[in-house]
Hints:
Layout: H1 7-15, H2 26-44, H3 46-49, H4 51-58, H5 64-88, H6 93-111, H7 120-125, H8 127-143, H9 145-149, H10 152-159, H11 165-190, H12 197-217, H13 229-239, H14 245-260, H15 263-289, H16 296-320, H17 330-349, H18 364-378, H19 380-392, H20 397-415, H21 420-443
Amino acid sequence: xxxxxxxxxxxxxxxxxxxxxxxxxxxxxxxxxxxxxxxxxxxxxxxxxxxxxxxxxxxxxxxxxxxxxxxxxxxxxxxxxxxxxxxxxxxxxxxxxxxxxxxxxxxxxxxxxxxxxxxxxxxxxxxxxxxxxxxxxxxxxxxxxxxxxxxxxxxxxxxxxxxxxxxxxxxxxxxxxxxxxxxxxxxxxxxxxxxxxxxxxxxxxxxxxxxxxxxxxxxxxxxxxxxxxxxxxxxxxxxxxxxxxxxxxxxxxxxxxxxxxxxxxxxxxxxxxxxxxxxxxxxxxxxxxxxxxxxxxxxxxxxxxxxxxxxxxxxxxxxxxxxxxxxxxxxxxxxxxxxxxxxxxxxxxxxxxxxxxxxxxxxxxxxxxxxxxxxxxxxxxxxxxxxxxxxxxxxxxxxxxxxxxxxxxxxxxxxxxxxxxxxxxxxxxxxxxxxxxxxxxxxxxxxxxxxx
Length: 452
């Protein structure tokens, strides 16, 4: 039994499904899902949003500790994504995943703040030992990522009708980037010295506690009636599932082999995972490759505007592809957007080593290129999730999303082994060429849209 319907009723629902009015509570579900995704990203970015003050507060020198706190994100993701995929493939998996994700974020925010119980003098005296709590807290928060990042298409499928599915996926998907953008603002606004860090951490504990209370109070696993035929098919698949650990594991991974045997799925996943990974790498080294004569504030503005424009692009892509004329043209929209983004990334990289084809004087034009590149590339992220779910159907969209985000984070983990000096020199050019390759991979992907 799933929800309030038995298996006989589920069979009838599948074969005689008719469109019904979607439930208003779907917006509640989307809001708290996006909140947790943004929160996880915000907590991950806490110390890097105010690096100078964070180093003093943690009593560390250099960038190694702060870089490690950031790098724990993709490492923990790769370590926990399979468990998250198993949870998400269970009948009430989406609810469980959001609850686990919010709980891990809250636990991480609390544990990393344990050193606040020591006096300031003792914190500095025992800083090396107390730093363990910070690493544990950040790792727990990082482990929350696959529960929300990989399940954006699952949320939109379960709760939203076909004409709202892309925009719901987009809103859920861009929440992580929005969390980082918020971090750019609230960190510097609240922390003017290391003495402000304790209050900053306490405020983030409060922010992390809110979704735990609300989600544990009311977050249903699914609507009473499925909002689309594809959602009815997924519910029917769950209703036929036998209970027990072995069967739930089989449900989680039975589709993975089928997906990976599909040439189009593999090509699409490579295109999406590589483009997301190298773009994350590009964003990470952007401030390091900009001219040293520019102020840190100006360099930070480049990163901020790129992130904000990426969020705007994702929302734009989700909303326009919900138009009836574009619902089955996600591949075409993605190719156009990636081609434009590739040209812009080449234009940006051509001003730096090793290309040096151009030399744009002043910051305004580079600023515009950076913003437009973020916008055009941001359009495709939610579409990758939706297209991978379309190819994977009728297997869970969360399994396809888990594979996509796994490739993305593996790229990030691999990049951690590359010396920072080499990354700073070659990341911009490499990103442009990888974006070109990802665009070409998209063109040979065979797409069908069985969920639409």
